[in-house]
Write a structure and sequence with these properties.
With 273 residues, the chain is of the alpha/beta class. The chain has helices spanning 56-63, 106-116, 121-134, 150-162, 180-197, 208-214, 242-245, 248-272; strands at 15-25, 31-41, 45-49, 71-76, 91-94, 168-172, 200-205, 217-222, 227-233. It folds into two domains: 12-90 and 169-174 and 184-273, P-loop containing nucleotide triphosphate hydrolases (Rossmann fold, 3-Layer(aba) Sandwich), CATH 3.40.50.300; 97-165, no CATH class.
């Protein structure tokens, strides 16, 4: 198992993503992001938290190269976007919905990124088996999405991201539509995978509890215009489990993050008034 470095050493790690004064203004004049500056460093698990419309998903997509900035800059591994794809410099994106191909079996859904890259069948087979094993779906490789629960569909979506063997995983509220028990199980699973593989993860959520449980750092955003208003380190050891969820420390962090989120929401209302 690869253990994450202590949260207190985060500032010494190499930056994986550097966003500098990122602004995003849509054609209709809506200011989605204003002056967003954020570093995501090697081995961190960082959650973006904020009210609806604050630009969390917009910032995540820009960081993934799925959207352009109006002004400002984003770098991956201290270089421009074109470094992605080099060894040790690969990212994957998990969307809010599983977005599986309903006519294809689980194995075929997971193989999609490899098919697009024209990976040889003999090489792809091992990667697919490995990704399915990582998310606990080895026995469901021949199932159709309609035969899976919501949680298993999301596991398939995660496996599709993992099959590319990424170093950086960007996740846009992947567990938001799931029931609490399934969500908690997947939270534990993604933390275990993060620890075992030494990934860097950036995770969008609306849940204070999820953000605190998962993260080494929580970034709080305010809306109208979308901007970063506070960063809170969750300086608690990993692995985390049920005991942490019922601890006084967890409650204290949740209270602190909730207060920051309420302040961010108020800032948004003041701008709108």
């Amino acid at each position: 198992m690869i253990s994450p470095e202590p949260v207190t050493t985060a500032g010494k790690r190499r930056p994986v993503i550097e966003a500098r004064d990122v602004n995003k203004v849509y054609a209709n004049g809506t200011v989605a992001l204003q002056g967003a500056t954020l570093d995501i460093r090697q081995g961190e698990f960082v959650s973006l938290l904020g009210p609806s419309g604050c630009g969390k998903s917009t910032l995540l997509r820009i960081m993934a190269g799925l959207g352009d900035v109006t002004s400002g800059s984003v770098k991956w591994w201290e270089q421009d976007y074109n470094v992605v794809g080099d060894k040790g410099r690969k990212l994957a994106f998990v969307f809010q919905n599983a977005t599986l191909m309903p006519w294809a079996r689980v194995r075929k859904n997971v193989s999609l990124p490899l098919d697009l890259e024209n990976v040889k069948a003999e090489d792809a087979g091992h990667k697919i088996d490995q990704a399915l094993a990582m998310v606990g779906l080895s026995n469901f490789a021949d199932s159709f999405p309609r035969e899976l629960s919501g949680g298993m569909q999301m596991r398939t979506s995660i496996a599709r991201a993992l099959v590319t063997e990424p170093d950086l995983l960007l996740m846009d509220e992947p567990f938001g539509a799931l029931d609490e028990m399934t969500r908690n199980r997947l939270n534990d699973d993604i933390l275990q995978l993060w620890q075992d593989n030494g990934w860097t993860i950036m995770f969008v959520t609306h849940s204070v509890y999820e953000a605190v449980y998962l993260s080494s750092r929580v970034v709080v955003m305010a809306a109208r215009p979308g901007r970063i208003v506070e960063e809170i380190s969750i300086d608690e050891p990993f692995p985390r489990g049920p005991d942490f969820r019922v601890s006084q420390s967890f409650a204290d962090y949740c209270r602190r993050v909730s207060e920051s989120l309420e302040k961010a929401s108020t800032m948004g209302r003041e701008v709108s008034a």
